[in-house]
Specification:
There is one protein chain. The chain has one domain: P-loop containing nucleotide triphosphate hydrolases (Rossmann fold, 3-Layer(aba) Sandwich), CATH 3.40.50.300. Helix content is 34%, strand content 16%. The strands form two sheets. The chain has a six-stranded mixed β-sheet with strand order 4-5-6-1-7-8, sandwiched between helices. Helix 5 packs parallel to helix 6. The structure holds adenosine-5'-diphosphate and magnesium ion (MG). Adenosine-5'-diphosphate (ADP) binds next to helix 1. The site of adenosine-5'-diphosphate has 11 residues, from helix 1.
């Protein structure tokens, strides 16, 4: 930040087993987004190690990071981040087309991903023609399309009313039950009930970490 150095995360050590749902919580500025960006390969650690899906992200080249991101990792944003000029199914199949998947195969996979999040029948709608919850479902479909197994979601319910937010948490929990690894940040304590693991961050450090083995109360 200009000439000032901000330490966004320090001494954070955690393990996210495949097929679990981990919630990152803590006040604004505690480092939740930074941690998600690191796992996604969008930002890099200055020191330490980061092993994601068998890749050592701390020593990957920029090209290796983007290849991993494109093929294996889905990112869901608070504001959905769908392209307004594309239909929902066109949005969902984008990551596959970007990796050179044939159009027909990409369309079939996008249709399947949309079915998994409860969007069948809405394939040809534009984002502005569906509700916020349906837009977030489409963003989640885009994150899992082509059997991606790691979904990172930064405050996925932050722009939704509580009922719709609860539905979106239900979708993410169902994907977890199907074997997807989900890591999300949230301000909403109600969302923690779906989590197998809860990491509480404060000022860039890990205040507490309850693992799946210990069991979240
Ligand atoms: N691009 C940036 N430049 C400088 N400081 C940043 C930047 N991004 C985040 N920070 C700082 O890093 C810390 C963690 O931020 P962030 O990961 O966004 O927290 P959270 O998502 O929990 O609100 C905060 O102190 C924030 O101000
Ligand atoms: Mg944040």
């Amino acid at each position: 930040m200009g000439k000032q150095t901000v330490t966004a995360l320090r001494d954070v050590s955690l393990s996210l087993p495949a097929g679990t749902l981990t919630a990152l919580t803590g006040p604004s500025g505690s480092g939740k987004s930074t941690l998600l960006h690191l796992i996604a390969g969008l930002e890099r650690v200055d020191s330490g190690t980061l092993d994601v899906l068998g890749s050592q992200l701390h020593s990957c080249t920029a090209a290796e990071l983007s290849a991993l991101r494109l093929r294996e990792i889905g990112f869901v944003h608070q504001d959905f981040s769908l392209l307004a000029d594309l239909t929902l199914i066109e949005n969902v199949r984008l990551p596959l087309e970007a990796t050179g998947t044939a159009r027909k195969d990409a369309a079939a996979a996008a249709r399947e991903a949309m079915g998994r999040v409860g969007l069948e029948g809405l394939e040809q709608r534009f984002p502005a023609e569906v509700s916020g919850g349906q837009q977030q479902r489409a963003a989640i479909a885009r994150a899992i399309v082509g059997s991606r197994t790691l979904v990172l979601a930064d405050e996925p319910t932050g722009s939704l009313d509580s009922k719709t937010g609860a539905e979106i948490m239900g979708v993410l929990a169902q994907l977890r039950d199907e074997g997807v690894t989900v890591v999300l940040s949230t301000h909403n304590p109600a969302n923690l009930s779906h989590a197998d693991q809860v990491a509480v961050l404060q000022d860039g450090t890990l205040l507490s970490f309850t693992t799946a083995e210990e069991g979240v109360a």
